[in-house]
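queue> pop job 88
queue> type: inverse folding (structure -> sequence)
queue> payload:
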């Protein structure tokens, strides 16, 4: 029998501080109306003192373990997707490991920005299938507020902080768990979305820089293509999908992607209005929200997708 990675539980974490568009408009030349019309975003959560990518990731992981009814000592693999690690090294995954009291397991970070969770999921799925572990934590966690230029209205209104996590466990059998994943990168587009610093180039961490219109154009084309690819790989059509759990960058990108695929917009899980773009955290955060509010039920066919800096993009199809 073949090994499959099944979602045993999900969890998420948001910093308590919620910042509305109106509050942002007090500091930068923007308005609630502009942000809602162009992005669908109404509010985002922002970390405070003592809250970090690893603390949010740990809280999300604990919630996922509770939901799965699995104790932390069973975990053999932690893959944490982030572009905003606590430190350049060690990996924030090892901080989560220590905070959960796990003495020995595989733990590392994956950097694919907003596509990070899809990359982490695919890596973890293949490691579980390959027999490296039987239980894994796959986490997306970000504190983008720390790398935003709060005077640049074209970027600072778009992002928020948060974390989402899933527990994967190996089960034998067919048509269950992660059915297929597809990943891509095209490094020629670095200058459209990047951070203006880093340990090997400057003595600062840098700030997010983005040419939004061009990113938007690439996003819709790439996301529709990879969604079709992952459906073909698993022998499904758009009509089979119960829920799309997309990367939450912009409501207009979600609507355009749904239209391109002929999917009813009500099959898309939308959290961008309340969370803004939380980069690698956005897909597992949206997944956890829709599972906890009862929209996503056991047995549903889910498609997860994301696109981000690099560019990177990817999708996964999962029988929940
Ligand atoms: N408030 C008010 N006005 C703003 C603004 C803000 N926060 N940000 C930009 N503007 C202004 C611009 O300066 C521009 O003014 P101008 O016409 O006088 O030059 C005008 O609004 C239109 O800007 P433009 O960039 O053309 O708007 P847009 O319709 O492309 O929307 C984004 C901008 C960023 C919302 C949109 O391009 C987008 O969502 N792109 C994708 C970004 C993304 O998803 N990134 C993450 C991928 S992981």
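queue> result:
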């Amino acid at each position: 029998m073949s090994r499959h990675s099944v979602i045993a539980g999900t969890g998420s974490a948001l910093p308590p501080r919620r910042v509305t568009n109106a509050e942002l408009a007090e500091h930068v030349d923007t308005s609630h109306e502009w942000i809602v019309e162009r992005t669908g975003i109404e509010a985002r959560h922002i970390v405070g003192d003592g809250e970090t990518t690893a603390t949010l990731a740990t809280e999300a992981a604990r919630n996922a373990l509770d939901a799965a009814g699995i104790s932390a000592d069973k975990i053999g693999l932690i893959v944490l997707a982030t572009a905003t690690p606590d430190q350049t090294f060690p990996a924030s995954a090892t901080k989560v490991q220590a905070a959960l009291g796990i003495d020995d397991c595989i733990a590392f970070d994956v950097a694919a920005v907003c596509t990070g969770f899809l990359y982490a999921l695919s890596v973890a799925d293949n490691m579980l299938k390959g027999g490296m572990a039987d239980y894994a934590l796959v986490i997306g966690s970000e504190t983008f507020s720390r790398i935003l230029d709060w005077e640049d209205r074209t970027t600072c209104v778009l992002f928020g902080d948060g974390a989402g996590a899933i527990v994967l466990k190996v089960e034998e059998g067919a048509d269950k768990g992660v059915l297929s994943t597809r990943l891509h990168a095209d490094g020629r587009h670095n200058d459209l979305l990047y951070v203006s610093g880093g340990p090997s180039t400057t003595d600062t961490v840098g700030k997010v820089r983005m040419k939004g219109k061009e990113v938007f154009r690439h996003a819709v084309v790439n996301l529709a293509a990879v969604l079709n690819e992952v459906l073909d790989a698993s022998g499904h059509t758009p009509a089979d999908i119960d829920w799309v759990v997309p990367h939450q960058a912009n409501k207009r990108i979600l609507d355009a992607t749904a239209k391109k695929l002929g999917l009813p917009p009500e099959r898309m899980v939308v959290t961008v209005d309340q969370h803004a773009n939380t980069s690698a955290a956005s897909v597992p955060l949206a997944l956890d929200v829709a599972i906890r509010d009862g929209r996503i039920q056991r047995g549903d066919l889910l498609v997860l997708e994301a696109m981000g800096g690099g560019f990177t993009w990817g999708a996964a199809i999962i029988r929940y």
